[in-house]
Amino acid sequence: MTSDTTMRQGQGRAGLVLAMLLLAYIFNFLDRQILGILLEPIKNDLGFTDSELGILTGPAFALVYSLIGLPLALLADRTSRSGVITGALAVWSGFTALCGTAAGFWQLFLFRLGVGVGEAGGVAPSYALIADYFPPERRARALAIFSLGVPIGLGSGAILGSYIASAFDWRTAFIVMGVAGLVLAPIFKLVVRDKPRAPGTTAPTLGALGKVFPVIAKKRSFWLMAFGASLSSLCGYGLATWVASILIRSYGMSLIGAGQFLGSLLLLGGTIGVFMGGYLADKLGTRDRRWYTWLPAIAWLVTAPLYAAGLMADSLVVVWMLLLVPNALNILWLGPVTTAIQHLVAPAQRATASGSFLLINNLIGLGVGPLLIGAISDGLREQYGADSLRYAALAVLTFYLVAALLLWLASRRIRDDWIDEPAAT
Domain boundaries in the chain? Predict the structure, then answer.
């Protein structure tokens, strides 16, 4: 009876920690997406080009987000994972609020760098905390629930940002979202605690990266999953950034209409996709580890043609229906791949492994995707006019097919590289 009570208490505690991590992750992506939905008002107010907007949404954020993420992951492994996440939440929220005060390109660029510094400390330590609290057979679902922060944050950012900007202005939208995150930070710190680590477990220091990185560097499945997910993210981040602008320019939608349209796609499609990815990975992955890579590969093969058909449709009803499925499938990889990365290293090295993965994923995906679409759009403007952005988005969809190939190749190595744990009793 006592052991049953202790188990229920442990599960309840794990659920509460997961809920708080999810809430922080929602704010993480909400603060990213709010810039995407506000691109048109910012462009009209400050006169930016699509390439400049692409720099603000991509490299300005991704550069520091990627490079600082690994040191912060190492710090989290060595000290307090919950403490690092709390500090990160406060920093990115503060700089999000400051974005609302920017008077020009370089001010907004610097504030976006600050948002990237903060958000760099949020994800990898969260992955590691979830791996600490949940046993292997429940881990993919837990990570998938956490990853619901991506579609919920993206969708909420699109909807809330459009409403606040329409009611007031784009500056107010940044300030409101930033202040809300600052309020959440101390509450998060009070609720979330690190789980005691096993006696004798040592975490890597900043100087011990040379001992940690070779463990994953020699595993081919790590590189294939990292670059495959990165190319998928290149498409995903780029499309999430620019679809609202496509709806406004090519279909004549209002800012609120574009926010509702994009937000509903991200919330409904993305939530289903993330959850199904984790659920299927737990069910199928226990039978054959290769499903952790097969699932994303299959999803991306279907995503590319459906997204292309949706972007070229004339009716907004048809556009929404065609884009719903790929908005689920393009994000399905989060649960399977992030779980697989956790199992390539020892428990004490999980945040560091996740940080290494995120370094690659965000440099390529977040750093290149929005900028690439913006640059292609500027290059096609003379030929296609307002539709140049739509054709630029079409051009990047081929990366989904390359990503699928890389994950299929990873499936040939994943079973050899996997580190098993005993199931919880």
Answer: 16-183+213-417
Please answer whether residues 274 and 334 qualify as being in contact, where contact means their C-beta atoms are separated by less than 8 angstroms: yes
Residue 22 to residue 177: CA distance in whole angstroms: 16
Q: What share of the chain in percent tops pLDDT 90?
A: 48
Q: How far apart are CA 299 and CA 284, in angstroms?
A: 15
Q: What is the DSSP letter of 370?
A: H
- The structure's pTM equals 0.79
Cβ neighbours, 10 Å, residue 95: 23
Burial class (CB in 10 A: 0-12, 13-18, 19+), 308: middle
The DSSP line for 263-295 is HHIIIIIIHHHHHHHHHHHHHHHTT-TTHHHHH
CA-CA distances (angstroms) from residue 359 to 24, 173, 224, 227, 381? 20, 29, 14, 11, 33
- pLDDT, tens digit (0-9, with 9 covering 90-100), for 261-308: 999 998 999 889 888 888 888 889 888 899 999 999 999 999 999 999
Query: What size, in residues, is the chain?
Result: 425
Q: How far is CA 89 from CA 29, 147, 173, 322, in A?
A: 11, 16, 18, 35
pLDDT digits (tens, 9 = 90+) for 106-154: 999 999 988 888 888 888 788 888 888 888 777 778 877 888 888 899 8
Tell me the HSE value of 85 on the side-chain side, using a 13 A CA sphere: 32
| DSSP conformation letters of 302-364 | HHHHHHHHHHH-SSHHHHHHHHHHHHHHTTTTHHHHHHHHHTTS-GGGHHHHHHHHHHHHIII
**CATH architecture entry for 16-183+213-417:** Up-down Bundle (1.20)
Q: At what angle do helices 2-37 and 136-147 cross, to 10 degrees?
A: 30
The predicted structure's pLDDT at residue 212: 67
Number of other CB atoms surrounding residue 47 within 10 Å:
10
Determine which of 96-100, 204-208, 339-343 has the lowest per-residue pLDDT on average.
204-208
284: Cα within 13 Å, side-chain hemisphere: 15
Which residue type, as a one-letter code, is found at position 130?
I
Cβ pair 24, 188 in contact under 8 A: yes
CB atoms within 10 A of CB 367: 23
CA distances from 112 to 25, 243, 283 (A): 17, 20, 40
